[in-house]
Automatic annotation (TrEMBL):
This is Methyltransferase type 11 domain-containing protein. PANTHER family: TRANS-ACONITATE 2-METHYLTRANSFERASE, TRANS-ACONITATE 2-METHYLTRANSFERASE-RELATED. Residues 40-127 form the Methyltransferase type domain. One of its GO terms (molecular function) is S-adenosylmethionine-dependent methyltransferase activity. It comes from the Bacteria. CDD domains: AdoMet_MTases. It comes from Magnetovibrio blakemorei. It holds the Pfam family Methyltransf_11. Coiled coil: none annotated.
Length: 252
């Protein structure tokens, strides 16, 4: 992923991507935040779930490497920092680290897991959900085909790292964690509207491989390729999401 670069606009995210945060609410329940706990929300984006964790009375720091998303989270009055997870230097500071739908944008994940491990106090927990092996595979392949037809190597523009449950477990254990649960869950997901805005919101890295005046044509091509697979009889787009959900603990 030499050229993979995704940019985020809080307005676009709120219009077309807010379902990603809403579907992450069960992960907040697994986190079970408590009043007074110090919690890091890694890849907090615009802060929709960060807000829910704050409601528990925990002292929450949101972190994201998108300055635009962090600005959106600041407008909600959240405590946030703009930083790359690969650069974070927190040491024995947090009772828990939480992350929803963010880790698959980060690479190498082994380094991120090491940094999370260091950030936690002994006994601290890391509760996360991310895209897992096979996530949005049909969409990803249609994007690959659209770039290959143009003679472009798609792997260079692919921003996503998806792990299976066994490799995630191994990587987390190698970082020092004790694993409590690591599960791969198929979650076909109704999109709120057409696939076009989804592609514009989340596949920016692939789009930037082609000149701007070809973007609309590329979206049409990808939509046509996906229609027989992801457009259901009730006229809804259903994306082939797969979640990797885990809870791991830093030993005391
Ligand atoms: C996800 O949450 O799995 C995801 C969302 C947008 C693009 C890619 C993956």
């Amino acid at each position: 992923m030499i050229n993979a670069q995704q940019s985020w606009s809080p307005e676009t995210y709120l219009r077309h991507g807010v379902f990603v945060s809403l579907l992450g609410e069960p992960v907040v329940q697994i986190l079970a935040p408590k009043a007074g706990e110090r919690i890091l929300d890694l890849g907090c984006g615009e802060g929709i779930l960060t807000d829910k964790i704050v409601a528990s009375g925990a002292d929450v720091l949101g972190m994201d490497n998108s300055a635009d998303q962090i600005e959106g989270a600041q407008h909600r009055g959240l405590k946030v920092v703009c930083m790359d997870a690969l650069e974070m230097k927190f040491d024995n500071e947090f009772d828990a680290v939480f992350s929803n739908a963010a880790l698959h944008w980060m690479s190498p994940l082994s380094k991120v897991f090491e940094n999370v491990y260091r950030a936690l106090k002994p006994g601290g927990r890391f509760v996360a959900e991310m895209g897992g092996a096979g996530n949005i595979q049909t969409i990803r392949m249609a994007l690959y085909n659209a770039l290959m037809r143009r003679g472009i190597d798609p792997a260079q523009y692919d921003p996503w790292s998806y792990l299976g449950d066994s490799s995630a477990k191994m990587m987390l254990q190698r970082a020092g964690f004790e694993t409590r649960s690591v599960t791969l869950i198929r979650r076909p997901t109704d999109l709120p509207g057409d696939i076009g805005p989804w592609l514009e919101t989340f596949a920016g890295s692939f789009m930037q491989a082609v000149p701007e005046n070809e973007h609309a044509q590329m979206i049409d091509e990808v939509r046509d390729a996906l229609q027989p697979h992801l457009f259901d009889p009730y006229n809804k787009w259903v994306a082939d999401y797969v979640r990797l959900r885990f809870k791991v603990v830093k030993p005391v």
